[in-house]
Design goal:
The structure is a homodimer of 141-residue chains. The first copy, chain A, is mainly alpha-helical and 141 residues long. Chain A has a domain of 93 residues: Arc Repressor Mutant, subunit A. Chain A is built from 7 helices and 3 strands; from the N terminus they run αααβααββαα. A 3-stranded antiparallel sheet of chain A has the order 1-3-2. In chain A, a hairpin with a 7-residue loop joins strand 2 and strand 3. The radius of gyration of chain A is 18 Å and the shape is elongated. The two termini of chain A are 31 Å apart. In chain A, 31% of the residues are buried. Chains A and B meet through helix 1, helix 2 and helix 7 of A and helix 1, helix 2 and helix 7 of B. Chain A binds a DNA duplex (23 and 23 nucleotides) through helix 3 and helix 5.
DNA sequence: TATTGTTATACTCTATAACTATA
DNA sequence: TATAGTTATAGAGTATAACAATA
């Protein structure tokens, strides 16, 4: 049913992690669709913290894509009134992105859905969930 | 630095899991690019097990996309000689996908790179890695 | 000269709707 | 009638190259 089998513990853990995430892809797409966002638009919105202006190029890095690509993604978010472009004071080549009030509301609801753990986590006791979180905290660094 | 903060253990674990996976996106894109595959083409190839024919529609479900979409993705894989279409015997509307020998080789190398655990897993002792795998096995169900 | 963001271009992904060939 | 896959179409994502404005 899913792509492959592991060998050593780290590889097995990583493979399982990938599999769990892959199984959540449908939920991700449904969440984006529920707010009429494309996946990249949703990621962009999630990366933009209200109150923290972010240069276009920084968003491009976070999205792992080219600057030219971000232009279009931001165009569409801006045309919906979810974000705004604002020339940076210190360097007028740079444009800062800021989330609007409407954008912050959508971002909040998107986050609430995306942070909802998939059903499989119910297979763990609260104590196991805590131990899992502790281990993953170390992996995340 | 990354998108949000959690509350209960399951949500925290899930958020960390998402963050670890997101941090690996660059590696995923590099892997696909190294073989001149688009991400969907790479996923498709990974889902196709050598020796196990898969109907187009089954691949569409695995990729969470429309049948019409799979047509183009498979067209491009087929034009590179990585997969083949073959009409199914029991129902001639169905087309089975089979990985060619060349496809199996690429698939193998892609898998080897994608299964490589990110650096963060070195932060765990072998025993912790085993315990992590055990917990994730329960989550994956 | 170098950098930020945009524009132009070309290709891929994506869904919807209409079509075909089977069933 | 219903289903599997294709085609047609339109919109969005993607990178590369060329460009404007700024540094």
């Amino acid at each position: 049913m899913a792509i492959d089998l592991p060998t050593d513990p780290a590889t097995e853990a990583w493979t399982l992690l990938s599999r769990i995430m892959m199984a959540r892809k449908g939920h991700m797409l449904e969440t984006a669709a529920a707010f009429e966002l494309s996946p990249p638009q949703m990621w962009a919105l999630r990366h933009l913290e209200p109150g923290t202006p972010l240069p276009m190029s920084a968003l491009a890095e976070l999205l792992h894509c080219d600057n030219s690509n971000v232009t279009g993604i931001v165009d569409r978010l801006e045309s919906r009134g979810l974000v705004e472009r604002r020339p940076a004071a210190h360097d007028r080549r740079v444009k800062h992105l800021i989330v609007t009030e409407a954008g912050a509301r959508v971002r909040e609801e998107v986050g609430a859905r995306m942070n909802q753990p998939p059903p499989g986590f119910e297979n763990l006791t609260p104590d196991e969930q805590r131990r899992l979180a502790t281990l993953l905290r170390k992996v995340a660094g």
